[in-house]
Amino acid sequence: MKEVLHSLKFLKAGAREHVFFDPKNVKAAIVTCGGLCPGLNVVIREIVMSLYYNYEAKEIWGVKWGYKGFYSGDDNWVKLEPKFVKNIHKLGGTILGSSRGGFDADKILNSLSERGINQVYVIGGDGTHRGCNALIKRAIERKLMISFVGIPKTIDNDIPLIDSSFGFNTSCEVAARMIEAAYVEATNA
User: Fold this and answer.
1) Does position 176 have pLDDT exceeding 70, yes or no?
2) Which residues are known catalytic residues?
3) Sheet containing 59-63, strands listed edge to edge, beginning at the edge strand earlier in sequence
4) 8-state DSSP, 163
5) Domain boundaries, the chain
6) Domain 20-156+163-187, what fold?
7) DSSP strands (E only) in the chain
């Protein structure tokens, strides 16, 4: 285990000077999976803005309804551009919808291949990240050139290697306010 921990590398966030995919050839997809938590639209917005303005990638898709959205109909694919996502950070939930289940690695990879998608941003919790890891392994087996980026999202704070993700602090703050309000009600009859 000690050897594994020494091999882990974390990179500072931000735009990169050198990238693997030529931005003119990037076709990206963003998906939200699992339960809802605060901040999903903020993350979607920032991925789109960064890809578009920092890397000049112009083909960015949102996939509705979690993993099953990849393969259950063309109407689940939404073109995402800065003007479309400009104000979504003010909305609750996720503009892409979310769901649990629907994971079928080969169906997902087939859909990504058919559409020429070469970058996938997967926003979700521990189960979603196990699915993302399975997609990576299967894509390698099939020799597909697709990059997968797992973005941790949890109100349970149950994803290894991170101290807390977006959603967790907000859920704790809301819970604390509710407990305090209940205490005030119970003690001030």
Assistant:
1) yes
2) 156
3) 77-79, 59-63, 27-32, 119-124, 147-152
4) S
5) 20-156+163-187
6) Rossmann fold (3.40.50)
7) 27-32, 59-63, 77-79, 119-124, 147-152
